[in-house]
Amino acid sequence: MLIRGLQALALVVFAAALLMPGLQMLWPLLPTVTLTGVEQAVERPHSSLSKIWNGAWQTELEKWFVANLGFRGLFVRTDNQINCSLFRELPQSAGTRIILGKNNYLYEWNYIASYNSTNYPSAEAIEAFVDKLSEFQRRLHDRGIQFMLVISPSKAQMYPEYLPERYVRPGVDRTLSVYNHAVPLLEKRGISFFDAPRYFRKEKKKGEYPVFPRCGTHWSSYAGAIVGREISVRLQKMLGQKLGVLRLTPSVYKSIPEPPDEDLAGLANVWFPEVFYERLPYPPKPRPRDRGPHSGRYRPSILIEGTSFAYLIVHYFDLYRWYRDRDLFYYFSSAHSYPGNVLWKIDRQKLDWEKHVFSRDAIIIEINEVVILEAGSGFIEAALEKLRRGR
């Protein structure tokens, strides 16, 4: 009897385990474990005889079922944690592919792929890009607008020593990168630019702060504030005005990284992301006398076009109310305006160029070193078209 009772109990437990995810999907009675990252919503598919016949409905139904399965978040985090702890692997099936490196450094796969790439643009393509930047800068100057290109660094290029050997392609001559070819041409043509990779390679040798957080894909918050300070110093000379000063000391150290310094740790979707954390410095909060009109400094009108690296620069400028107004064009697709904290989608055909672009004191374009030729995401070409027409 005892054996039969145990067998029946095991059968009930097994059946419950099979049924619970489906029951949780239909009637979520227990708390849902959320996952970090952007996932595309999967709607329940509509059936039809033709879709059932050719198998399309079954495929759509399977995708919907997997995306909405009860306890999915719990299963995903548990699976990721097991793979991380036992095999030092992180999820690579969808979304941002994350590579776990030495000393628990996290890397975004795209930057490793660029680090290993030998598919370099031609010299003619790089020269054409620099010619375009030179004309853009000259035409802006003719309208009394200053220009600066900001080159942001790649984590794989900055910290190659923590890359797993199996992800480092041997025999690649990395001196042939687009960055190494473009920078001398930018200097030769007199383009105003801030070379953050070169600047931070020198800072890295000092070892005073991490250029990239161990668990993040962008430069650290502290490094982003330094870039903001360097931009301010350079624009002060270019504009001939005393601009606000961004304070970096005394630094405040925190054991738990603030967003976005922990973005890759969050996207790893494990139960214990703390293993990737490190103690990081953060700039102090601005004093009241350093902010906005109270600073007694000139507050320029700025347009920044760039990638996600630009957000940390803008963050510190906003804290200090360093400018009187600014737009951030994210990949020349969406925009974020200050003051007012207004988010809006850019319609390239209807954009008010005079208001948002040609009325500025300065225009800053940020681009990562591995994709320099993609600077502006079409903004430079569109602006040049307007400038050539005298608009």
DSSP strand tally = 11
Structural class category: alpha/beta
Number of helices, counting only DSSP H or I runs of 4 residues or more: 14
Overall mean pLDDT score? 90
Q: Please tell me what the overall shape is.
A: globular
**How far is the first residue's CA from the last residue's CA?**
92 Å
User: What is the helix content?
Assistant: 40-55%
Alpha-carbon Rg, integer: 26 Å
Description:
- The chain is α/β, with parallel strands linked by helices and 391 residues long.
- It has 14 helices and eleven strands.
Question: How is the topology of this model organized?
Answer:
Layout: H1 2-26, H2 49-54, H3 56-68, H4 72-87, E1 98-100, E2 106-108, H5 109-116, H6 123-142, E3 146-152, H7 155-158, H8 178-188, E4 193-195, H9 196-206, H10 221-239, E5 252-254, H11 263-267, E6 280-282, E7 301-306, H12 310-320, E8 325-330, E9 334-338, E10 342-345, H13 353-356, E11 362-368, H14 379-388
Parallel strand pairs: 3-4, 3-11, 7-8, 7-11
Antiparallel strand pairs: 1-2, 5-6, 8-9, 9-10
Helix pairs in contact: 6-8, 6-14, 10-12
